[in-house]
Amino acid sequence: MVEFAIDASGTLIDLTLFENGRVIFQMYSIPKKTHSQLLVNTVDFMLKATALELDDIDTLYCVAGPGRHTSIRVVISTLKGLFFKREEIDCFRVNALDLTASVIDKQAKFRVVGEFFSKMAYFSDYEIDEKGRLKRLNEPKKARDSEIFSSDIEVYKANDISLYPKTPNIHKVKEFAEKVELFSLNPIY
Asked: How many whole angstroms separate alpha carbon 176 and alpha carbon 23?
C-alpha cells in the first residue's frame, strides 16, 4: 500500500510517501516560488525518485487548514486534478494543528496555534497520555492573541520551521483525520 501525505498550509511544502507503512520519500522546503508554480513538479520529482506512478498511490492525506487559504486551495485543487481519473482512492483531510502536535514530545499539556491573521488564530490544546498517544483536549477554536497566550501552557506555533518535517508523523493523527471523497476535499475553516 502506498500513501502520500502533504502539508502546504504554510510557507513550506512538506510531503512524505509511504510504502507499506515505511517512509520511502520525504521532502520539505521553503520554496522561492509559489506553491502553484512548484507543486506538480515536486510530485513528479517524488514519483521519479521512487519509480512509482500516480496510480500506485492508494491513500492521500492532505493538510487542509487552518493556514494560508490560498496555499491550501492550491494544494487541494492540484490533488483533485492529479487524481481526477481515479475512482478508488482513500482521502483524508488533516488538521494542521493536530499534525504539528504530533511532533511534540512532551508529557505536560501544551497548546498549538496556527498563523495569526489580524491578531486572530486557531488553537487547540494537547497532551501525550501514559501510553505515548496524542490526545486533543479541545476542538480547535479561533481566538485573539491575548487569549491564546494568557495561560501558562507552553505554546508551539504551527509555522515554526524547527518542527518540520511533520508529514512523516501522519499516522499519529489518523484518528483525528476526516475521511472524505476526493472531490469533497475542502479547506478546514
From this structure: 21
Say which residues have a Cβ less than 8 Å from residue 188's Cβ, sequence separation at least 6: 64, 65, 66, 93, 95, 96
Q: What is the dotted CATH code of the domain comprising 2-95+161-184?
A: 3.30.420.40
Q: Residues with Cβ < 8 Å from 172, sequence gap 6 or more?
A: 102, 134
| CB neighbours of residue 32 within 10 Å | 7
0.90 cut: is pTM over it? Answer: yes
**Cβ atoms 114, 67 nearer than 8 A:** yes
**Is-same-fold flag (2-95+161-184; 98-157)?**
yes
d(CA 134, CA 136): 7
pLDDT (tens digit, 9 = 90+) per residue, 49-80? 999 999 999 999 999 999 988 889 999 999 99
